[in-house]
């Protein structure tokens, strides 16, 4: 008999662990899954690569959502349909606040909803907020791992490359980092009564500091493939998995 699969991600409708770590890159999903006991690939369709396994006895799901909130929210919604009840997003971001260095972790308390998709689902006044227990679990895991970390509001923005629109609307607002998918996860979780949070590895300064749209980012000094970032990703993976375990124990 053919397994019953959800239509967009092709994940099974039942049987996934209810605690999920979601990442952008399918390769990163595989690298995180390699840390699990008994890891196995569940599905791989488009950008959506899904694994299951266990971390210190806790069954977990690891899944990739690709780049950008419009595609990522499809994974979040179908994982929730399949029974996932706790989500942590583990991604990368650009620092926006002084004192946050490359490779540091940023634990999101909330997100600016500039994601390009949730504005079409409900009014912009609706907040994108992390579950407090997720914030505290991530902070505890980061402290116990000795990982440099910061808490704050992040800016989820749909466009990666700078354009012609001035991007100083949040100057002086104290935002910690800029990324592309977290607000969609937090809104999805709030609407469905789920637990959700996010931790981001800083891979450079705010890319929007490059104001000239005719100059590609590749010539503007942005390089996420440095050793300091790789080390931060290693720490972030462990912190994220341990935070899932702490959430399960709460």
Question: How does this structure look, described?
Answer:
- By secondary structure, the chain is of the alpha/beta class.
- The chain has one domain (19-249): Rossmann fold (3-Layer(aba) Sandwich).
- It is 28% helix and 30% strand.
- It contains 5 helices and 10 strands; from the N terminus they run E-H-E-E-E-H-E-E-E-H-E-E-H-E-H.
- It has helices at 26-33, 69-81, 132-145, 182-192, 227-249, and strands at 19-23, 37-45, 48-55, 58-64, 86-95, 105-114, 128-129, 149-157, 177-179, 195-205.
- It has a 5-stranded mixed beta barrel.
- Strand 3 and strand 4 form a beta hairpin.
- Helix 2 (69-81) runs parallel beside helix 4 (182-192) and helix 3 crosses helix 5 (227-249).
- The radius of gyration is 17 Å and the shape is globular.
- The model has no long low-confidence stretch (mean pLDDT 92).
Terminal-residue CA separation: 39 Å
What characterizes the major β-sheet? 5 strands, mixed, barrel
CATH topology-level fold name: Rossmann fold
What would you say the CATH architecture is?
Answer: 3-Layer(aba) Sandwich
* CATH secondary-structure class: Alpha Beta
Strand order of the largest sheet: 5-9-8-6-10
SS element count, helices: 5
């Amino acid at each position: 008999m053919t397994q019953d699969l959800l239509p967009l991600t092709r994940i099974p409708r039942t049987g996934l662990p209810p605690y999920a770590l979601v990442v952008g890159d399918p390769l990163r999903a595989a690298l995180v899954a390699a840390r699990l006991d008994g890891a196995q690939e569940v599905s791989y369709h488009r950008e959506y690569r899904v694994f299951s396994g266990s971390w210190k006895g806790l069954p977990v799901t690891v899944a990739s959502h690709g780049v950008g909130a419009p595609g990522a929210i499809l994974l979040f919604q179908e994982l929730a349909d399949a029974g996932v009840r706790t989500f942590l997003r583990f991604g990368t971001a650009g620092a926006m606040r002084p004192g946050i260095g490359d490779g540091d972790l940023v634990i999101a308390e909330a997100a600016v909803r500039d994601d390009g998709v949730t504005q079409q689902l409900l009014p912009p006044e609706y907040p994108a907020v992390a579950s407090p227990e997720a914030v505290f679990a991530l902070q505890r895991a980061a402290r116990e791992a000795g990982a440099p970390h910061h808490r704050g509001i992040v800016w989820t923005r749909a466009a990666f490359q700078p354009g012609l629109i001035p991007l100083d609307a949040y100057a002086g607002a104290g935002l910690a980092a800029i990324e592309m998918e977290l607000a969609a996860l937090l809104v999805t979780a709030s609407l469905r009564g789920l637990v959700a949070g996010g931790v981001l590895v800083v891979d450079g300064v705010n890319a929007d500091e490059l104001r000239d749209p005719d100059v590609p980012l590749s010539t503007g000094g942005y390089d996420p493939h440095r050793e300091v970032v790789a080390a931060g990703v290693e720490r972030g993976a462990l912190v994220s998995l341990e935070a899932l375990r702490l959430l399960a124990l709460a």
